[in-house]
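Problem 12. The chain below contains 99 residues. Write out its predicted structure in token notation.
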Amino acid sequence: MHFKRLLERKVEVATALCEGLIASGEMKAAKVDIPALATNMVVVATYWLSYDYVRNPRHQQPEVTLASGAYQVVALAAPFLAPRARALFDRLASAYVAS
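Solution.
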């Protein structure tokens, strides 16, 4: 039950982050898109380490794994970003994509 509540809280936080980006004009998304986006962000953030371990059990690099997971989470929101925020994302993401 504790883990369930933790997941619910993560979805609440991801939802609030998306709503904040929308309110500031940095994200263009319909209200109906936010629950699925927030849930997907939480799923990727929560299970990224397990996923990466199964893919590369003998080649674990914690810094790379965590950075890749962070990129994957933020990349879910990228299609919804307004042009200025998308340009910033693309600039910052280039380091993750290159590695």
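Discussion. The radius of gyration is 15 Å. Students who got a different answer should revisit the alignment rule from Section 12.3.
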